[in-house]
């Protein structure tokens, strides 16, 4: 691959599409975005709202703290925050510029305004539908398939925007160009200036929230727990800093992160361990940027077959990506990275996603550890082989199998997880 290759431009565009800034867990923030948009379409403060969402949205909004709300959780809180204080132009930073007065107004609006929430009858894993009413006027906004994809807008029954909803990610660059071989080639030839802006933003944002997670008191303090008495061990540092960023993010920290494949936790997991290792070992900026290309694109490649939301924990894919990025930083190339991916996938593919909450930080730590183990196995001459469980001969065949496991095999598991969560 070279910079004139069509795949080069696609890989750049995929990074720009997926490595976007977001404040707070992306599912409640997507709801706030839809709510802010529906108010702007309505042209008035709604006096009641009807919200229909897919089961996975319910799962990922139930337990996580929404930033700039005074510690509120849940779908009605996300809706109220978007309606009262959201700027739809900010997309996934829709509630980034909220004042203390806005927080008080959100709490008041939530108490006084009927916000009905139900599970949508939809084939889409990712589906948010909000109808707002003010007197005799109404407005409707629907987001489908990914967090900023507004597929339908109506006002008083008149359709203002309509996209076909075909369970795809129409509008995004075709991901079928991704392969482990292609990713390694791209990382080796990419011009640093082509990726510097998007990756330096990831470095700034995600390390800032990791530092805050280690400094503050958030959730179960997984990052601090891991690092205790292990401050000088690089393997513990990588796990701890990544977990600490999630500690903060899942528990109301108002710092933004750069996401990966629609998830801040995945963006953190794919980047923070690689950054920590590069800084501790004196790697150059260019070496770090190339390694982050690997870690982010491997994560995206794995997630493409899985989907945005599923019963399969997204941190697993990002932990594999981190292992691949670390392999690149240490001088490994295609063979090393391919074996690292296969080895790591074999270790943690059973971790379930039971929504966004404090324990995500612990799952991130476990996933990063699997990435480190996958690399260490290859470095010591050990590996898992095709036929070992779900592992297939060849890294791409293994990635395809993992996608099938998560998307098809765990479909019923996902439904049962949502059912169990709704019982509590």
Task: Explain the overall architecture.
By secondary structure, the chain is α+β, with helices and mostly antiparallel strands. It folds into two domains: 21-162, 2-Layer Sandwich (60s Ribosomal Protein L30, Chain: A), CATH 3.30.1330.90; 174-423, no CATH class. 56% of the residues lie in helices and 10% in strands. The protein has 16 helices and eight strands. It has helices at residues 6-18, 26-42, 55-61, 75-85, 100-112, 180-189, 192-215, 222-227, 234-250, 264-280, 285-306, 314-329, 334-348, 360-379, 395-409, 411-423; strands at residues 21-23, 48-53, 115-119, 127-134, 137-144, 150-155, 158-162, 256-258. The protein has a six-stranded mixed β-sheet with strand order 3-2-4-5-6-7. It has a two-stranded antiparallel sheet with strand order 1-8. Helix 7 (192-215) crosses helix 9 (234-250) and helix 11 crosses helix 15 (395-409). The protein starts with 5 loop residues before the first helix and ends with a helix.
């Amino acid at each position: 691959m070279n910079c004139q290759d069509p795949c080069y431009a696609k890989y750049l565009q995929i990074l720009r599409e997926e490595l976007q800034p977001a404040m707070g867990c992306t599912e409640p923030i997507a709801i706030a975005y839809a709510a802010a948009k529906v108010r702007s379409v309505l042209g008035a403060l709604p006096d009641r709202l009807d919200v229909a969402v897919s089961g996975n949205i319910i799962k990922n909004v139930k337990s996580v703290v929404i930033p700039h709300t005074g510690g509120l959780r849940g779908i009605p809180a996300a809706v109220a925050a978007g309606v009262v204080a959201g700027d739809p132009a900010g997309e996934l930073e829709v509630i980034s510029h909220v004042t203390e007065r806005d927080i008080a107004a959100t709490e008041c609006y939530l108490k006084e305004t009927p916000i009905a929430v139900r599970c949508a009858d939809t084939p889409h894993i990712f589906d948010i539908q909000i109808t707002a009413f003010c007197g005799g006027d109404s407005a409707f906004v629907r987001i489908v398939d990914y967090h900023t994809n507004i597929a339908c807008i109506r006002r008083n029954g008149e359709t203002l925007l309509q996209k076909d909803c075909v369970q795809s990610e129409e509008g995004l660059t075709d991901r079928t160009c991704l392969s482990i071989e292609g990713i390694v080639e791209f990382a080796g030839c990419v011009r640093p200036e082509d990726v510097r802006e998007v990756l330096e933003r990831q470095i700034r944002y995600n390390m800032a929230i990791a530092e805050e997670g280690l400094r503050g008191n958030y959730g179960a303090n997984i990052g601090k727990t891991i690092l205790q008495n292990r401050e000088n061990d690089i393997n513990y540092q990588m796990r701890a800093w990544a977990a600490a960023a999630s500690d903060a993010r899942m528990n109301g920290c108002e710092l933004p992160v750069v996401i990966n494949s629609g998830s801040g936790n995945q963006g953190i997991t794919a980047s923070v361990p690689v950054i920590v290792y590069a800084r501790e070992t004196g790697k150059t900026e260019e070496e770090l940027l190339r390694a982050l290309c690997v870690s982010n694109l491997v994560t995206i490649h794995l997630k493409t077959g899985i989907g945005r939301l599923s019963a399969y924990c997204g941190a697993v894919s990002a932990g594999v990506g981190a292992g691949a990025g670390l392999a690149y930083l240490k001088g490994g190339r295609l063979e090393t990275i391919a074996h690292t991916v296969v080895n790591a996938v074999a270790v943690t593919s059973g971790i379930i996603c039971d929504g966004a909450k404090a324990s995500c930080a612990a799952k991130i730590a476990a996933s990063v550890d699997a990435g480190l183990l996958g690399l260490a196995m290859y470095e010591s001459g050990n590996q898992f082989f095709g036929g070992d469980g779900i592992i297939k001969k060849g890294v791409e065949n293994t990635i395809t199998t993992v996608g099938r496991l998560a998307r098809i095999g765990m479909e019923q598991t996902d439904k049962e997880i949502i059912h169990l969560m709704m019982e509590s």
